[in-house]
Predict the 3D structure of the following.
Amino acid sequence: MDFALDDDQQLIVDTVRRFAERELRSWAADADRAGAPPERLAAVASELGFGLDAVPADAGGLLEGSYSHLTRALRGFELGRGCAALAALLECNVEPALAAGKWGGQALQQALFASMAKGELATFVHDSRGALDVAGDRITGKLGPAPALATASYVLVGTRGLLAFVRCDDCKREAIVPSGWRAARWATATLEGARLDPELVLARGDAADAALADVLAWARVSLAARAAGVAQAAMDHAEAYGKERVQFGQPIGKFEALIRLRDDAQTLTRAAHLVAMHAAWQIDRGLPGAYDSASRARVLAGDCVARATIDAVQIFGGYGFVNDYPVEKLMRDARAFEALHGDERLGRVLAQKAGS
Amino acid sequence: MDLFHDNALLQGVRQMMGAFAKSQIRAIAAKHDREESMPWDLMKMAGQFGLTQTSVLDGRKKLTGVDEDPDPKKPKSQARIGVVASEEMAWGCAGISLALGGSGLACTPVAQMGSEDQKQEFRKLLTGADDKGHVKVAAMALSEPATGSDISGLKTTAVRDGNHWVIRGSKQWITNGQSAAVYVVWAQTEPAAGRAGVRGFIVARGTPGLVPGKKETKLGIRASETAQVHFEDVRVHDDMMLRVKESAAAGLGDTKKMLDSTRPMVGAQATGIARAAFELLLDRVRGGSLHGTPMASHQHIMFELAEMQMEIASARLLAHRAAWMADHHMDNVAEASMAKAHGARTAQQVTTRAMVLLGEEALEPGHPVEKWYRDAKIYDIFEGTGQIQRRIIAKQLTGHNPT
């Protein structure tokens, strides 16, 4: 068993870490207040290869050979350390591009990849609440709230018995700015008997459920890696603040109670990062345990980021509660990691209850 | 859910404040959270039925219709009334309840330490409306940029000059800091004396050199205003200095005592937030189904609710015990801290779990559970952080301050 990164992976980690520390972190607060990403994001993202990394090279993208979810998890952790909202926009094309590449026909691939090559976004929405109704070639119901949905051209919709793309022009979209990931271009969308274009349908019935399980595994590993990154950022900030803030005659970071808060969060973060990478490694090898691992990675990282960000605010005290300091944003950002794509703990409980 | 069924007074307060919270506070909670604005109209209305900005100074007679026995040795009911009312109002909206009660922070030291003349002056400054037509509010200015948990290191100074004191320094996280008509500011009069040299001064808005600073954008309790306040050589007459009883070791000695009666109320507010989230979930569970089976038939969900109810009930009991002890003139230092710390933890745990159980729904802007999640956090920070409460409890055990 080898945990070492290869040269390419190390290069990607170093590059994305620099980008996250220098750019994303410096943009994060303004983007959060504005509820929108900085205009420069798109240009810098395309320079670094985001948005097209899952689009095959022969279709104008950057993907040669098979996609590495492990590399994506490594990158996601670094992006999470930068800004959860901007990370979501940088990662949102991956599921749609991979799904189209794997199950889509030529016409869909051409249209979607051309759209992405122009810098447009796509996003994946899982109907975790069963809010969609599919009848023949008509689809009705509500999508989201989901990040990137406000500006995306295509949305990959996964629901029981159907995995299909929907053109966002066919939806009634309402842009929203939730409390967390505020810059991530969220929206809800309503479909009122929209016609499913046969060219955009990837799978139906059992095949769709199996395909959706794949897509969810990709999405959950990515979420888990980014969540661990946000938890790490929270503890980075808390550590620095603990050194400079003096109360009762000593830096507060020297108090055992605060050391414990950080230390426990660090243990959880390390574990969440590793479990996410392990799940990604399983996906890359097509191992049967990958879905389960991806789901557990997400659950663990969700718990981890919730705790680490709440404790970071605690360590900052009164300054943690105000917007001039970075950690209250992280506490708001933590929520989406646990909420997106549904509660798989519940899913597993029900599955085990129903099983033998 | 009345804790002390046999106490008609507390039951009455709970019913009245619960109805007020439901009909008046809940209706405007989302708006003031979104706009980060004070509920001025509601504050005015609350004043008309007795919940005035000077309630603490006046006693709660107007609110409850009850005269407390003037004999200082007899048991009182004020702390318990405070606990019951606090839980109900925070159930409605923690930010609004703090806006309604924010002046109480400044009234308490005036009530405890002020002379009759000072009380009269203080009341006068809070009478009528300000130039915007708003109810007048007061601010307690104690914390400083470098002085949060450790209040012994105050940097703001008051220097004697004839019949006056000249106050210089900056205050941080001050409730009503921008809007207050009157401030009770704490300053060091004798730097060599440390804590014993700290005194409180009543300072009217408009006094030259008193400069309200930046209003903070906060994670939660956004209906309550928090701002910096700067004192740039503010001259205050000696008559406006709060006198220290000879028995008290320090000016702050009295304010520390006051925390023993406010901490149970703060714990009760946190309990109110937790209860709000719990009740929303319970309501959802009662009508809800999960893949064709009633939600209420699932341990996965119901055991979480059972856990929440246990925590909420224990937080409420701790707050009532601490308040009961205050009403019976007993030393409740550790009990007050337990009530505050456990309430804060319960509010955070319940709102965080509620967010997870509700899933994507709770991400929608303006969702009440998301707001309660943000509101809950301050309860582990202000009025002594969770760490400070544990330090107090621990010190009561062995006499040592662990570091």
Q: What stands out?
A: Chain B has a mean pLDDT of 90. The longest helix of chain B spans residues 251-287. DSSP finds 13 helices and nine strands in chain B.
